[in-house]
Amino acid sequence: xxxxxxTLAANSRLRGHWNELWANRDIFNAQHDxxxxxxxxxxxxxxxxxxxxxxxxxxxxxxxDRQIIQMRDQEIGMEIVNxxxxxxxxxxxxxxxxxxxxxxxxxxxxSISIDGQAPYSxxxxxxxxxxDPIPVFTAGYGVNxxxxxxxxxxxxxxxxxxxxxxMRKFHKKRVNFYLNGDSSIVVDGLPAQGMKNxxxxxxxxxxxxxxxxxxxxTTATPAQLLAFFGPTGPFGLTARRNKxxxxxxxxxxxxxxxxxxxxxxVDINTGTNAILSGTVLDAISKFIPAKSIQMTYALSGNEFxxxxxxQDVISPLVGMAVGVVPLPRPLPQSNYNFQIMSAEGLQIxxxxxxxxxxxxxxxxx
Length: 365
Hints:
Elements: H1 5-10, H2 12-39, H3 45-50, H4 58-71, H5 78-83, E1 89-90, E2 97-103, E3 127-133, E4 136-143, H6 145-148, H7 153-180, E5 182-187, E6 190-192, E7 202-205, H8 222-229, H9 234-241, E8 249-252, H10 254-260, E9 263-270, E10 273-279, H11 280-284, E11 293-295, E12 304-307, E13 314-326, E14 336-348, E15 358-362
């Protein structure tokens, strides 16, 4: 969902988004020149100086775009979003929701005969449907028309500093959406849900309530961790029930990671003596159906998240990659305002058997 040389080369739809971004920038330059020419005879020397840029140059936009890429990894939790970029689905901006069919049942009569004429039915599969919204994220920042001084070196620095501050808030909102969704966004009855609360995410209640696993993974012993995450524990059973051989990524909270990173001491039956055998994670990871286990500060306490990194399981929906466009200046004393915008959502699917490759564990009510 970012414009880089690699993503532009790999995705033709994203190149279309890139062309639209530059069309907006070129439209601003043309509109700006028309505005200045219309009022030039009545503008003061100071107004002329502040409006002398003649539109933003490619070098200016290169600095703006470069900073977007530089900042994409600085927000807590962005590592989860970035990990899923390999299975993103790029869509036209006109799509406000991404629907998909869920195959139902069909007659199970399969005939075996010599002549091939034995009776069999010609019915068709019944389909249900599901889907997820693709909302638009917007934010803005500006540079005062006098401070800009034609967006000289000082003006460019001020624009970049303002963008940096606002981009942090923009990314924080995006990460929260991918994890928790937004209850205010509903399209055609389809709610915008995140990895933690999506209706198609398998959930494991770690608390002590009804059906809860009644375990605190941040203080559990190595044996308890193995019993939970292993093949016959709640985590392993959830994987098997959903026909998951191994989740590509298991994200855990810092507190859970600290418990897993403790030294693993093996009793050698010589009184109180024990030998160090790596960490707890080293000892149990081979029994956990997960290819990679990593810590994230986006989770906390008794919490974990895992998924198969497959487009038919989970996919970021990108209707517009993150970009910055200038807003029209109707008057010489109008400020230089910029809009940060993206259109993106998250799709988590269940198949026709109701199986899902995403699982979330926490103390659930």
